[in-house]
Specification:
The complex is a heterodimer of chains A (about 270) and B (about 220). Chain A is mostly helical. Chain A contains ten helices and eight strands. Chain A has a single domain, classed as Cytochrome c-like domain (Cytochrome Bc1 Complex, Chain D, domain 2, Orthogonal Bundle), CATH 1.10.760. Chain A is globular and about 55 Å long. Helix content of chain B is about 45%, strand content about 0%. Chain B is globular and about 60 Å long. The chains are: A mainly alpha (about 270), B mainly alpha (about 220). Chains A and B meet through helix 7, helix 8, strand 3, strand 7 and helix 10 of A and helix 1, helix 2, strand 1, helix 4 and helix 7 of B. Strand 7 of chain A pairs antiparallel with strand 1 of chain B, so a sheet runs across the interface. Chain A: Heterodimer of SoxA and SoxX. Chain A: Its EC number is 2.8.5.2. Chain A: Belongs to the SoxA family.
């Protein structure tokens, strides 16, 4: 799999280079766009989608149960449309939860798996890899649907306001906040374009693009991992998986993305 | 940990309840600020060299700039001036009076985005992360646009001899800006490379040379 992906990548890069040499000079952004379009055909995220669907239906854990009765916010077992309404308030946990932390709640309550242990498991390993696959499938079931996070519960409004404060929180050794990179339009880091996440950056961009398959490291990246790596690069301390701060931040991003059509799972450089 | 999370949940409910009881649109700014601090404290942990104090103990400059951003306003002029003066006082000028080092080493520092994350070790050399946000030399096409272009930085400012008295104001400003960018713009997006210990004095000299040495590709 890995060698095949690499070979395909090299071929795509060559093709992009060759095409660029023959035609008018292209901006780096245009070339990257073309490269992405070539990759989009046969997104390996589909493999994770398939794994996630299987895991959803499979009887597992100490209680030997499936996740088919999991309530992602639209009632037990309703998957379609759930992703574009998360994070949201859940009465049974008394918390605003995002997709991944909600899936872990279901894995504990329905299957008897240990939520705290899953939260501590590194990304890409063990049950955490399963959470990512499940999130990929659940997200894919809402592909093309517009984001419409609920803001009717008092705590959903609080989560938005707190998330906004976390988004603008300069800290760490570099005084960076999320807004340092994602607070204006038309900016980029190195050659990477940066969506303005204080408003709706458009369909399939920013919040509406994750989970995504990342070609550069051959991994499926959930939103929790995306935020985790942003914080690593901001030189922040480690954000706990499923923590209230991440749910609040995701609420801020998700509400701002209202109306944007979800493209997840996408493919990224 | 779990108990702390529960307490936090209770705090959220408490704040929400206050909002409902008074029929106000929700918790006050001060209540939300406090809740945010509690949530940040409970949600981040120390990992490797990235200690939790990096988010729980921020200075007044960051605190006031963050609050201004949340409110969607700029700092008032008097506060901005006060913070800039306080930050200027932290600038340590070169101990031997020499401002410029070697531009070739400066280019390497400008290229490097390494250091200070939770996956870095304490003894690894830090980079300057300069190209992440700035165009610098013309040869490097992979640069960011969050900061202004620094191509021809010295040339555009008329620096032909960085050691001349005429160049002194620009040389000192450039040092101060790299050392503590908030000395000139209180809520600048630019990291405080010297003040926060990201770059050593010797490294700042090398980056200075990259920007101001007439022999540097930046000024060609």
């Amino acid at each position: 799999m890995k060698t095949r992906t690499l070979a395909a990548l090299a071929a795509a890069a060559l093709a992009a280079g060759g095409a660029a040499a023959q035609q008018q000079p292209k901006s780096a952004t245009q070339s990257i766009e073309e490269y992405r379009a070539m990759l989009a055909d046969g997104n390996p995220a589909e493999l994770f989608e398939a794994k996630g669907e299987e895991l959803w239906k499979q009887k597992r854990g100490p209680k030997n149960a499936s996740l088919e009765q999991c309530d992602l916010g639209k009632g037990p077992g309703v998957v379609k449309g759930a992703f574009v309404e998360l994070p949201r308030w859940f009465a049974d946990t008394g918390k605003v939860q995002d997709l991944e932390s909600r899936l872990v709640t279901c894995m504990e309550r329905l299957q008897g798996l240990n939520a705290a242990e899953i939260a501590k498991t590194p990304f890409g390993r063990g049950e955490m890899a399963n959470v990512t696959a499940l999130a990929t499938w659940v997200a894919a079931e809402s592909r093309g649907m517009p984001f419409n996070l609920p803001q009717s519960h008092a705590q959903e409004k609080v989560a938005y306001e707190v998330g906004k404060r976390i988004f603008f929180m300069r800290a760490g050794t570099h005084d960076f906040s999320c807004a340092s990179c994602h607070g204006e339009e038309g900016k980029r880091i190195r050659l990477q374009d940066l969506p303005n996440l204080t408003k709706n950056p458009g369909d399939g961009v920013g919040f509406a693009a994750w989970p995504a398959y990342r070609v550069s490291n051959g991994q499926m990246w959930s939103m929790q991992l995306r935020l985790n790596d942003c914080y690593r690069q901001q030189r922040f301390p480690y954000p706990e998986f499923g923590s209230d701060a991440l749910s609040a931040l995701s609420t801020y991003l998700g509400v701002n993305a209202r109306g944007a059509k979800s493209a997840a799972p996408t493919i990224k450089r | 940990m779990n108990r702390k999370m529960l307490a936090l949940g209770a705090a959220v409910v408490g704040v929400a309840a206050v909002g409902c009881a008074s029929m106000s649109p929700g918790p006050s700014t001060a209540e939300l600020d406090k809740l945010t601090q509690e949530m940040v404290k409970a949600s981040f942990r120390s990992q490797g060299i990235a200690k939790v104090e990096r988010v729980t103990d921020i200075d007044e400059t960051l605190r006031l700039c963050n609050a201004a951003d949340v409110a969607g306003k700029q700092l008032d002029a008097a506060t901005a001036k006060r913070l800039e003066e306080a930050n200027l006082k932290t600038v340590k000028w070169p101990s031997d009076g020499k401002f410029l080092g070697d531009w070739k080493q400066g280019e390497q520092i400008a290229q490097s985005g390494r250091g200070l994350t939770w996956t870095d070790t304490a003894n690894a050399a830090n980079g300057g992360n300069c190209y992440n946000c700035h165009q610098i030399s013309k040869e490097e096409i992979s640069f960011g646009t969050i900061g202004p272009s620094l191509y021809n930085y010295g040339k555009l400012r008329g620096v032909t001899d960085p050691n001349s008295p005429a160049a002194k104001p620009i040389v000192e400003y450039t040092w101060g800006k790299i050392y503590n960018a908030k000395a000139y713009n209180a809520c600048s997006n630019m990291p405080r490379a010297g003040h926060m210990g990201n770059l050593t004095e010797a490294q700042i000299k090398h980056v200075m040379a990259l920007l101001l040495d007439p022999q540097s590709p930046v000024n060609k």
